[in-house]
Amino acid sequence: MVQAALVVLLVAIICEFIQYVGYSYFVTQSYKLYKLAVQRSSVLQLRQHKKEILELKTQLRQTSSQDEFAKWARIRRKLDAATAKYDKLATDLAYDKTGFEVKMSIASRVVLYGARITAIFWYRYEPMFYLPQGWFSPITFIFSYPAAPTGSVSVLFWFLICQRVVHKILVSLHLVQTSITNQQNVPEKADLEETKKIH
């Protein structure tokens, strides 16, 4: 009974946290890890091409197109080739990023909703805990909906409670963090106003 309640609580915490920070933030951070692990060589090549392009542009600016036309044309051809390589690699990486983000967004939603449904389905007959007798006597059947024993709290009701409490905690933490940040910024503004008054 306690293990089931803790599993459902953990699933609710994870799901609510990811929903609170946003799927896009989660997907972006996942892509950064993917890029470090899988696309490291492509990213290094892209940086190398960019460095080469900057060097060639510097050389091109330093070379006169009228006085040293052959040298200028050779540098220009190298610059065009390097730019084409850079553009192709950047386009390929952009397509990979878009594809990864779409797949990861869908996969994360499927996994999170799947975890919710699985937890609710798996523990649907198991009571999370029993309510004290007589507290909610006329409406105890609501707490045990859909299939838990009468007088107990069902997994569905427990999951909804956990989600709501976790959401309230996350919002409260965000508000506390925001107010602390604002309080830290207020003395700086006050110091600036005092400095303006002095001058």
Give your account of this protein's structure.
The protein has 199 residues and is an all-alpha fold. It has two domains: 22-123; 130-198. It is 80% helix and 2% strand. The chain contains six helices and two strands, in the order ααααβαβα. It has helices spanning 2-21, 23-37, 40-62, 69-122, 140-143, 155-198; strands at 129-130, 152-153. The chain has a two-stranded antiparallel ribbon with strand order 1-2. Helix 1 crosses helix 2 and helix 1 (2-21) crosses helix 6 (155-198). The longest helix is centred in the middle third of the chain and has 54 residues, at 69-122. The radius of gyration is 30 Å and the shape is elongated. It starts with a helix and ends with a helix.
Query: Would you report the number of β strands?
Result: 2
Task: Average the pLDDT over all residues and give the rounded result.
Answer: 85
Choose one word for the global shape.
Answer: elongated
Termini separation comes to 70 Å
Order of helices and strands: HHHHEHEH
Low-confidence stretches: none
Strand content: under 5%
Tally of discrete structural domains: 2
**Rg estimate, integer Å:** 30 Å
Number of helices, where a helix is a run of at least 4 consecutive DSSP H or I residues: 6
Order of strands across the main sheet: 1-2
Q: Considering DSSP H and I runs of 4 or more, what fraction of the residues is helical?
A: over 70%
Q: Please identify the structural class as seen in this structure.
A: mainly alpha
Largest sheet: 2 strands, antiparallel
